[in-house]
Amino acid sequence: DMGGHDTYMHKEIHEQADAVDRALRGRIDDRFSTVHLGGLNLDARDARAVRRVKILGCGTSYHAGQIGAQMIEELARIPADAEPASEFRYRNPVVDPDTLYIAVSQSGETYDVLAAVQELKRKGARVLGLVNVVGSAIARETDGGIYVHAGPEVCVVSTKCFTNMVVSFGLLALHLGRTRDLSVADGKRIIAGLRKLPEQIAEILANEGEIEKLAGEYADAKSMMFIGRVRGYPVAREASLKLKEVSYIHAEAYPASELKHGPLALIEPAMPTVAIVPNDDLLEKNRAALEEIKARSGRILAVAHQVQEKADHTIVVPKNEDELDPILMGIPLQLLAYYTAKAMGRDIDKPRNLAKSVTVE
Ligand code: M6R
């Protein structure tokens, strides 16, 4: 039942405020400025013993993991990184007992992720799951984990589940941080930020009409560039994947800092750039990248916390805490992908050549 929406993608994009609310419900502990994650199976002693975090997933779930790794580094100061599960499996990885492995998956059935989990377990590693589907294979095979509670996601293209994965990583990062050196004040600050998310998501979605118009402006592009830095980079990668999947427009994502090392050669009016420009300590650096693109007659659509003068258009999103901004900045770009695909008459819920869960190698 699509409840009045024309596609599941549109419905699921609009379910995000409620979905995030569900991910937070019952988990926040104001007294100790932390969160409780029931199924984690990791006591305070285990949490303090973690020396490194390795996150494994595929596609959108891998991108959620990249944001998650940054959150864990920032809030818990544990070295963390994300890698496609498929790559990890095939390179005979060093499995380290002091590393906490986290498998991320909407379906909980993705073969490459499941095989990575099984391999890790054979080698004696501790593996947690960050999964949407309750009781799925990955949920069963892991030692504990977090259900992201996005609710059923039908569209092949993941939207609300991505958002809830990133929120769940925020909860985990806060939890790990508070068992280590994260201050009570920072704990409170992050909790306040998390609580603001549902309302801010609703605010972004209320702006849908403007994004629909913008999709019309850019639907003629043969190819699009997505750029961001640090927190904005995985957001750019995910937005680029979204556009490719539903509209079949070619898109690339680069760190803004890498432009001058090659991709700047592609910039011309027919190759618009979507730039993620948060108001954080990299704002001036991001603005410099916009200038470089403008100087080559590139069209720019910025997603930012304030109007960017160098951009042709800016989608202004509400500001949260710096660490949580990536959760919000991708949401208008889900709508951009949706409206672009719609204008092109694409089969939005079932893009060609793709399946909802990839249970084969
Ligand atoms: O079910 P999973 O999260 O394990 O699926 C992983 C990817 O196949 C999935 O995210 C894919 O990239 C989606 N089509 C993204 O929209």
TrEMBL record:
Domain SIS: 42-183, 214-351
Catalytic reaction annotation: D-fructose 6-phosphate + L-glutamine = D-glucosamine 6-phosphate + L-glutamate
Gene Ontology MF, one: carbohydrate derivative binding
Enzyme Commission identifier(s): 2.6.1.16
Function as written in the Swiss-Prot or TrEMBL entry: Catalyzes the first step in hexosamine metabolism, converting fructose-6P into glucosamine-6P using glutamine as a nitrogen source.
Subunit (UniProt): Homodimer.
Predominant location: cytoplasm
Protein name as annotated: Glutamine--fructose-6-phosphate aminotransferase [isomerizing]
Species name: Streptomyces netropsis
Location of the active site: K356
Name of the gene: glmS
Keywords: Aminotransferase, Cytoplasm, Glutamine amidotransferase, Repeat, Transferase
GO biological process: amino sugar biosynthetic process; carbohydrate metabolic process; fructose 6-phosphate metabolic process; protein N-linked glycosylation; UDP-N-acetylglucosamine metabolic process
